[in-house]
Design goal:
- By secondary structure, the protein is mainly α.
- Helix content is 71%, strand content 0%.
- It has helices at residues 4-24, 33-36, 38-41, 44-54, 56-63, 67-81, 94-107, 111-118, 122-140.
Length: 147
């Protein structure tokens, strides 16, 4: 009959083996293919730049602010929300983070809907929106007036 120490040792060894097996499993998909094309086909890269250059009124309706106000907001908030590129992926630009958040606040669209429009994973968006809102409040909290 095995002693208690041997049973505990055997269970510990089994747990370690399970952990090693889980580490060895690779992800099947790191990022979906349609999300990988965001730099060529995403809303920020295409529509936003077109509106800024060609149709300032539509730009204002899209973001609920004009180009110069948006650029001021980006300059103010960017240092708080910028991320660094890594060897795994490029960081999402601060301006794009702000655009995504403004669209969410202006339209009330779901994060799931915005994920298709901006070609970002929904879990990424769910982290961006509160971070940008917090940064905006931190920098402009005393100036924000709620009706």
């Amino acid at each position: 009959m095995a002693s208690d120490d041997q049973v505990i040792l055997a269970l510990g060894f089994a747990a370690i083996c399970d952990i090693e097996i889980m580490k060895a499993k690779k992800r099947k998909i790191w990022q979906r293919k349609w999300l990988q094309r965001r730099t060529q086909l995403g809303c920020y890269e295409n529509l936003m730049k077109e509106l800024a250059l060609e149709d300032s009124e539509s730009y204002r309706r899209f973001l609920r602010m004009d180009v110069s106000t948006f650029e001021e907001l980006v300059a103010l908030v960017s240092p708080s929300i910028e991320r660094n590129n890594t060897s795994m992926r490029e960081a999402i630009l601060a301006a794009e983070r702000i655009v995504l958040t403004l669209r969410y606040l202006a339209t009330g669209e779901t994060q799931s809907s915005l994920s298709y429009q901006f070609r970002k994973a929904q879990n990424t968006i769910s982290g961006i929106i509160p971070a940008v809102c917090s940064a905006i409040y931190h920098h402009l909290g005393s100036e924000i007036q709620v009706p």
